[in-house]
Amino acid sequence: MSPRPLTERPLACSFRHPICVHSANGTAIHDVLGVVASAERAWDVAVDVFDLPPPDRDPRTNTYDIFLEPHVEGGVRTLASSRDAGSSVDRASAFTLLDARLDGSSRAHAIARGVFRAISFRVAPATSETTAESETTALADLVVPEAAEHNSFFESRPERAVCDAWPDAPQVATPFARDASFFYSWLDDTYANAPGGFTRALWALTPTTTPVGASRWTNDPDTFDVLRMTFKVPPGYGDFLLDFAIARAFDANVAARRDWEIDWPVHPRRLAPALPIAPTGSSILLIRHAGAAPGSRLRIEATWEEHAAFHWGAVKLDAHGALLGRVAIPGQDKGTDAQITLDNLDGVGAILLVAVNAGDDLVPLDPDAAVSEPHGYLVTVAQQ
After folding, report:
1. Measuring CA to CA, how many Å separate 325 from each of 291, 317, 345?
2. What is the block-wise mean pLDDT of the chain (384 residues), using blocks of 10 residues?
3. Distance CA 382, CA 304 (A)
4. Rounded to whole angstroms, how far apart are CA atoms 21 and 67?
5. Which residues contact 333 (CB under 8 A, 6 or more apart)?
6. Can you say whether the dihedral through the CA atoms of 120, 122, 127, 129 is positive or negative?
């Protein structure tokens, strides 16, 4: 659990919900009341619209507390305050640190993230920090859509795991995690029957039990355990991740970075990614069709390292980059190669090859692990 700020006397509290706002720096009362109003709005949506339980109250104040601080990295941070030792599953109250410099929709969005994170500490406190940042940002985007963040940081690094904690560069972990909210927004848009439904289901399906006195939560099952089981039946977890990788290639805000863009391979080309691909990470290659003889076909042969499960798809684009159709590139289960010959390419502007690493069944992706082992591939493309 985390120590609370020393300022305990609230400047203002909600009349409708157990929410109090604290500040030690003489914050203007209209700003404090604005924080209260934004917290009430986020609470109303979370509880009344999304049917989530409210945050647990702190046992000392009997409220959910927001502390205005002169500087908070990333604008907002929510921390566990007190564990409910009497609960049969992990559960905790939480408090939120909010950057007092924020205002307008940016402040409202940050407060919504704080409220949803406090709720996650009640229902799924063991969720990894990066995963929780992504999930709560996706939910906050539904509450304050005008302040929804774009995905430039996330999409510029498609080779990283969706839940990457960036141990090599901790200062970028939070921006990456917030941009990775695109994954959870896509899950909701694709599979949920109500706003935020998939994220809420993930929280409901990840109850954990941590021994009293443990130094950290026991995150088992975790979010990706649930996803692997949910998509275990055909078409399977790998093809589910491939669907997401293709969606990243067409992200309306910022499309995922491409490893290669090449002209039609009159002579065979062998290509490798700029960086190895972590589990759930992807790689995109674009092959222009201009210059191909009528009736030409494209041969694709991919190989990759053991202890990785790459899934490949080919997407046909028109002259303006719009999707014409897609083809899965078949490979054997637990194999290390896949191949296909694409035909009927007349009228196609380009072919997009998309690869995703579904991970190693023997060592499944763990969002709490410091490093998820990445792997490389080689793909040969040639005209026929």
Report:
1. 21, 7, 11
2. 76 96 82 95 98 96 95 94 94 96 96 98 97 97 90 91 93 93 96 95 96 91 96 90 95 89 97 96 97 96 94 96 93 91 96 96 87 92 96
3. 18
4. 6
5. none
6. positive
What is the C-alpha to C-alpha distance for residues 183 and 177, in angstroms, rounded to an integer? Answer: 10
Residue found under tokens 């039609």: 264
Secondary structure, 3-state, the chain: CCCCCCCCCEEEECCCCCEEEEECCCCCHHHHHHHHHHHHHHHHHHHHHCCCCCCCCCCCCCCEEEEEECCCCCCEEEEEEEECCCCCCCCEEEEEEEECCCCHHHHHHHHHHHHHHHHHHHHCCCCCHHHHHHHHHHHHHHHCHHHCCCCHHHHCCCCCCCCCCCCCCHHHHHHHHHHCHHHHHHHHHHHCCCCCHHHHHHHHCCCCCCCCCCCCCCCCCCHHHHHHHHCCCCCCHHHHHHHHHHHHHCCCCCCCCCCEEECCCCCCEEECCCCCECCCCEEEEEEECCCCCCCCCEEEEEEECCCCCEEEEEEEECCCCCEEEEEEECECCCCCEEEEEECCCCCCCEEEEEEEECCECCECCCCCCCCCCCECEEEEEEEC
Indicate the pTM of the whole model: 0.94
What's the token pair of residue 383? Answer: 């005209």
Helix 223-230 × helix 197-204 angle, to 10°? 110
Cα(297)–Cα(338) distance, integer angstroms: 17
Q: Considering just the CA atoms, what is the radius of gyration of the chain in Å?
A: 23
- Do 327 and 340 touch, CB atoms closer than 8 A? yes
State residue 63's pLDDT score.
Answer: 96
Q: What does the block give as tokens for 237?
A: 């977890």
Identify the residue whose tokens are 């003889």. Answer: 293
- Looking at the DSSP bridge assignments, the partners of residue 186 are none
